[in-house]
Amino acid sequence: VQSTKKQNFGKTFLMEGRGSYTLPTGTEYRGELKDGLFHGEGVLLFPGGGRYQAVWHRGVPAEVPGAGRDPRDGLEYEDEKWHYCDGYDRRFYTEICSGLKPAGISQLTNLDPPRKIPAGCYDCGDGFYNPETRIVIDYKLRFLRNAGSHAWSERI
């Protein structure tokens, strides 16, 4: 499927059948489509590697195979009763599994021990951003990408 709509002699045709569609965010849908909507079996593939598989009905997930497990890490969850890091319980997952640290010893991230961030850098989720060089290196300190302009960091 190449596009959401086609004009042909005043008529609009919507996506139908089986195909793939890449959203502006980079997320890709692969599966069945009807009247331009996700309809039938299909999967959303996220740029960061996550996936969301469902049976869709008019663009809304109706059945989710494997519901109750996050496909990225296999952790159990409930859509309605989320028990992880909510307004009442702010513990990290590792603290839930392994217990809290003694008084006076803080755990500032889910990683224990936390990552050592190089001086002058920021942890950006997939590596470290250095505003001086405008380069992102991965957690093993290998080149990952050029970050371009860092105007966003000056607004923080």
TrEMBL record:
It is found in: Cell projection, Cilium, Flagellum. Pfam families: MORN. Its main location: other. The keyword Zinc-finger does not apply. GO terms for cellular component: motile cilium. Keywords: Cell projection, Cilium, Flagellum, Repeat. The keyword Membrane does not apply. This is MORN repeat-containing protein 5. It comes from Anser brachyrhynchus. The gene is MORN5.
